[in-house]
DNA sequence: TTTTGAGTTGTTCGA
DNA sequence: GTCGAACAACTCAAA
């Protein structure tokens, strides 16, 4: 069993197939629990995601017990083949990967294994409905979310798979060490592993009825906080969907469907991990990242809601989705910087950094993605802050220079004589002007 | 093939 | 302070 982004034992069809249990296989087998630390993925992941992955691997090792995971470092092409041969394995089981890199990697590993008479079996995926499955009446992939969601729900998914009974784990080779992966100073990460994810889910289920209201409020704890667990497969979305009331909890199911929609879009258009989904947007006039980009990255734009979000990213490796949209809109529409620069920064720091969701979330905000909505949607950072952080608590939590301002005053230090007495920077741009400029640049594109 | 209705998440302005 | 209209035109999906 080659684990990748499915770091759990429960509801894991590939593992059941490997162990020959649950009707997935043909009788009990010994299983090698393999994880390969691939430098091609490890290095660009950013220290937060690396640290979280290391903790998650340790948690999975504990769940397995005994010698835990068989960890190998290096090119999967070499490592998987070496381990499979040493184990005299007939089959290597995986959950299918639908990302651009993972697909190519798995095809290569498939061929390399085949040379030794070993099969690569793809059982299940990180999604309730595998990318490529949901099609419209013309058998084409959907390009708009809402009809995708209806068809996705109609398509349906399997019930959660049973947990494996005792598995006979085998270790044909010795483990390598996990590379050093210290958490950056001051970064707080949640407890890793499937048990922690299930605890969080059970706790969050009490809040599901309030989710539709509370989910948009970054000052409240209204979200499930499971994005990192979904990213690493510590929990499968199917497990969550099975616990939802289809009527009352549709809003939460819709958020899971967004994740599946973006995976589907990226599956059909793998080049959009880097390139514009709407190619004409490559022609727009942009500003090369410079001092303003640095101010954005470090949370010193002078716009409290934006700066709070950018500092939350660095402090926690996570940002509330509402704030992700606002800071992304600010970079693209107020600073006129291409979305790829912002997306790369997010991927460097997010503990849940998922290529499909991140890149297409950015493209959506930038207007070059799957958004079918009006072009004139430009977020006003102060209006957004007042609307979704009405008490100012979120801003004060991450921006100490504004803690002396009470209530909503934290959103507009420029209106107060003592607004800047604690070192908070002045606004680096005039939002009203840059909004007009963004619309003008779009108009040029249309012309 | 043509037509029709709809499209996550907004902002501004004037009544 | 609140509320509704205006802000373009286009693409997508299905009837």
Could you explain how this protein is built, in words?
There is one protein chain. The protein is mainly alpha-helical and 447 residues long. It folds into 3 domains: 125 residues, HUPs (Rossmann fold); 107 residues, Serine Threonine Protein Phosphatase 5, Tetratricopeptide repeat (Alpha Horseshoe), CATH 1.25.40; 173 residues, Orthogonal Bundle (DNA Cyclobutane Dipyrimidine Photolyase, subunit A, domain 3). Helices cover 45% and strands 5% of the residues. The strands form 3 sheets. Strands 1-3-4 form a 3-stranded parallel β-sheet. A two-stranded parallel ribbon has the order 2-7. Helix 11 crosses helix 16, helix 13 crosses helix 14 and helix 15 packs antiparallel against helix 16. It starts with a strand and ends with a helix. The model has no long low-confidence stretch (mean pLDDT 94). The structure holds a DNA duplex (15 and 15 nucleotides).
Q: How many domains make up the 3D coordinates?
A: 3
The largest sheet is: 3 strands, parallel
What name is given to the CATH topology of the largest domain?
DNA Cyclobutane Dipyrimidine Photolyase, subunit A, domain 3
The neighbouring-strand order within the major sheet is: 1-3-4
End-to-end Cα distance: 54 Å
CATH superfamily of the largest domain: DNA Cyclobutane Dipyrimidine Photolyase, subunit A, domain 3
| Structural class label | mainly alpha
What CATH architecture of the largest domain would you give?
A: Orthogonal Bundle
Beta-strand portion reads under 5%
